[in-house]
TrEMBL record:
Gene3D superfamilies: P-loop containing nucleotide triphosphate hydrolases. Keywords: ATP-binding, Nucleotide-binding, Transport. SMART domains: AAA. This is Branched-chain amino acid ABC transporter ATP-binding protein. Pfam families: ABC_tran (PF00005), BCA_ABC_TP_C (PF12399). Transmembrane segments: none annotated. CDD domains: ABC_Mj1267_LivG_branched. GO terms for molecular function: ATP binding; ATP hydrolysis activity; L-isoleucine transmembrane transporter activity; L-phenylalanine transmembrane transporter activity; L-valine transmembrane transporter activity. PROSITE patterns: ABC_TRANSPORTER_2. InterPro entries: AAA+_ATPase (IPR003593), ABC_AA/LPS_Transport (IPR051120), ABC_transporter-like_ATP-bd (IPR003439), BCA_ABC_TP_C (IPR032823), P-loop_NTPase (IPR027417). Residues 2-234 form the ABC transporter domain. GO terms for cellular component: plasma membrane. GO terms for biological process: D-alanine transmembrane transport; L-alanine transport; L-isoleucine import across plasma membrane; L-valine import across plasma membrane. It comes from Intrasporangium chromatireducens Q5-1.
Length: 236
């Protein structure tokens, strides 16, 4: 069980995340939703070790992860994707995967073998030798997920991996996410596509102005008056 407990993150005078708590269990998909600027990406960055919180802790069971550098966080089993995919553009798809696989495999042969397995899983084997920078957005997003998977996470943080994808690409990505849940991974995703979030997630946290204003099953949060007022605007 991964837990974010009472986390606050400030940027100067702005409190981007305020006393937020969240839990994700293995085999569970948890959604984080909220308006633009609500603090979702900041919360992810705190969990992934990219940002250090001003207050609060990130826990893996009893183990404190807060303050670990991203590389160590990856070793501890936490991986994130970025809203804007960040592959090493000059490297090929395979080289990107191998670089990520080296987080968990010292030997080059092992890293290559594991990268090949992950490439197969994300369906990019046929494009393995092309430069990552030449991939269209849908494929780049898949590579982004693949690079996270290559670090063998127990907690996978997906930041808007469905944004900008066409319906076919969305179906492929959703199927992959379901498969990962089935394999026992803990998954936490930020997404704006409400219908998909509602059908995919086991539980949802709603953030507004950095504060978790509601949590529960998709049905519970979508019937929460505070959520409807703050975010859904009566559209659900
Ligand atoms: N590095 C930073 N320095 C200063 N302010 C920041 C920084 N990163 C984020 N913010 C601010 O913190 C607040 C939360 O931003 P964040 O990107 O976490 O929101 P979000 O919910 O992910 O938004 P979106 O849905 O648009 O991606 C915003 O007001 C943003 O401008």
């Amino acid at each position: 069980m991964f837990e974010v407990r009472d986390v606050t993150k400030r940027f100067g005078g702005l409190t981007a995340v305020s006393d937020a708590s969240l839990m994700v269990d293995s085999g569970e998909i948890v959604g984080v939703i909220g308006p633009n600027g609500a603090g979702k990406s900041t919360l992810f960055s705190v969990i992934a070790g990219v940002l250090r919180p001003d207050e609060g802790v990130v826990l893996d069971g009893e183990k404190v992860l807060t303050g670990l550098r991203p590389y160590r966080m990856a070793r501890a089993g936490v991986a994130r994707t970025f809203q804007t995919p960040r592959p090493f553009g000059a490297l090929t798809v395979r080289e990107n995967m191998v670089a990520a696989a080296h987080t968990v495999h010292r030997s080059t042969a092992d890293a290559h073998a594991w990268a090949a397995e992950c490439l197969e899983r994300i369906g990019l084997t046929e494009l393995a030798e092309v430069a990552a920078s030449t991939l269209p957005l849908g494929m780049r997003k898949r590579l982004e997920v693949g690079r996270a998977l290559a670090t063998k996470p127990r907690l996978l943080l997906l930041d808007e991996v469905l944004g900008g994808l066409n319906p076919n690409e969305i179906d492929t990505m959703v199927a992959l996410i379901r498969e990962l849940r089935q394999s026992g991974m803990a998954i936490c995703m930020v997404e704006h596509a409400m219908a998909i979030i509602m059908s995919l997630c086991d539980r949802i946290y709603v953030i507004d102005h950095g504060v978790v204003i509601s949590t529960g099953t998709p049905q519970e949060v979508s019937s929460d008056q505070q959520v409807i007022d703050a975010y859904l605007g009566g559209s659900v």
